[in-house]
Specification:
The protein is of the alpha+beta class. The chain folds into two domains: about 170 residues, 2-Layer Sandwich (Gyrase A, domain 2), CATH 3.30.1360; about 70 residues, Elongation Factor Tu (Ef-tu), domain 3. Helix content is about 15%, strand content about 35%. It is built from six helices and 17 strands. The two termini are about 20 Å apart. The mean pLDDT is about 95.
């Protein structure tokens, strides 16, 4: 990615949650620790089923008296409804601000040029009163700016950035093994911990209870993690099946089938052989090695 590139992430949506009980409300349901989210620190987190299966993931950013949740736009209405189910009598307000705010991504190098910035995942500063932060999942994804749509292009101009093809950003995310598109395909099919949330700084194993905590902790503490979500690349042929095989043996399943596909694959002895020749239908595929391996 070019140093001065900016990627407008139009597929991302934003919820805003505030109110007297907002901190306790989020703390009781999300996988990460809301106490760690401050004016200068943002975090990655998720909402799981009671059984610990994946439902939604999002980045949480402190903003004024509440928090932004930066998530995939296509799932935002369902996330909004899910949060309202947990709301009960809590004094919180949940707003969908996707038509008013937008997320843009810029490079880590550009972020570190800004005053008061630090080379720490999740570190957050303000630019023209808007939060801008180094991605809490991986600094190789650069930084994110949450800005009012009306201010977007003026902020881009003041930062000296040039709008670039958003596919460059998502190709980088795919190479890093971080799924951001069609995440609804993962819902209730994969445990949250199998999505590599621990490696992406999305789970706090020291915080109190949250939805899905029991199974998540059991898998971690009893060393039962036997599958992981990996990015795959098609080398030849066409994917026309969900089943992934190695030497005619089933070793996994394709879950996200788009131009940046992801599959749930079985581990052997807590590791995966990335040099294996794999098949998915009529396609020859390769599993991409994420940087946290």
């Amino acid at each position: 990615m070019n140093r001065n590139s900016v990627y407008i992430l139009e597929d991302r949506g934003l919820l805003y949650i505030n109110g007297d009980d907002v901190k306790g409300f989020l703390q009781n349901i999300i996988t990460n620790n809301i106490e760690n989210v401050t004016e200068d620190r943002s975090c990655f987190s998720a909402l799981l089923t009671p059984q610990g299966k994946y439902l939604y993931d999002f980045i949480i950013i402190k903003h004024k008296s509440g928090y932004f949740l930066d998530c995939e736009k296509k799932i935002i209405e369902n996330l909004y409804k899910q949060l309202n189910l947990y709301k009960l009598r809590s004094k919180v307000e949940i707003l969908n601000l996707s038509n008013e705010f937008v997320v843009a991504s810029l490079t880590k190098e550009k972020f570190l040029e800004l005053e008061n910035s630090k080379d720490e995942n999740g570190f957050t500063i303000k630019f023209r009163e808007d939060p801008i932060f180094l991605d809490p999942r991986s600094d190789k994804l650069g930084a994110r700016l949450v800005v009012n749509l009306e201010k977007l292009y003026l902020s881009i101009k003041k930062l000296g950035l040039e709008v670039s093809d958003v596919n460059e950003y998502y190709n980088t995310s795919h190479e890093l093994g971080i799924a951001q598109i069609d995440t609804n395909k993962l819902q209730d099919k994969i445990f949250g911990i199998e999505c590599n949330f621990e490696e992406l700084n999305g789970i706090d194993f020291k915080k109190g209870c949250y939805v899905g905590q029991e199974n998540t902790a059991r898998i971690k503490l009893k060393d039962k993690l036997s599958k992981r979500l990996f990015a795959i690349k098609v080398l030849d042929g066409e994917i026309n099946s969900e089943e992934i095989t190695c030497e005619e043996k089933n070793i996994g399943k394709l879950l996200i089938n788009n131009k940046n596909p992801f599959a749930l694959l079985k581990l052997e002895d807590k590791s995966f052989n990335f040099d294996k020749d794999l098949k998915c239908g009529d396609a020859k595929i390769k599993v991409l090695r994420p940087n946290w391996i």
